[in-house]
Amino acid sequence: MKLKAAFIFVAPEADYRKNRSVVETPQVDLTVVGVKDYAMASIAAQELVSEGVGAIELCGGFGINGTAEVKKAVGDKAVVGVVRFDNHPGLNFKSGDEIF
């Protein structure tokens, strides 16, 4: 069975409806999605789950609060993992928790 997974990253002005791409391999289809904030990440995560995604990884821009918001949005419909940066270089060396 092929795994449908997603990676969500935070970037100013990103829109999950436009800033997305799918990488297909024999074992995994990985959808990469850009979002501008935690609220958009929660919406994108819910839509990804409705498309069959069962594993979501969040970029290092998501702090503890942002991770919790996405996990709450998908409930038990997908597992949520994170890449960790205490201070993300793409967010002026801040955590998303400080920005969003």
Secondary structure topology:
Elements lengths: L2 E8 L9 E5 L3 E8 L2 H13 L4 E4 L5 H11 L4 E4 L13 H4 L1
Parallel strand pairs: 1-3, 1-4, 4-5
Antiparallel strand pairs: 2-3
Helix pairs in contact: 1-2
What can you see in these coordinates?
By secondary structure, the chain is an alpha/beta fold. 28% of the residues lie in helices and 29% in strands. It has three helices and five strands, in the order E-E-E-H-E-H-E-H. The chain has helices spanning 38-50, 64-74, 96-99; strands spanning 3-10, 20-24, 28-35, 55-58, 79-82. A five-stranded mixed beta sheet has the order 2-3-1-4-5, covered by helices on one side. Helix 1 (38-50) packs parallel to helix 2 (64-74). The N and C termini lie far apart (37 Å). The mean pLDDT is 92.
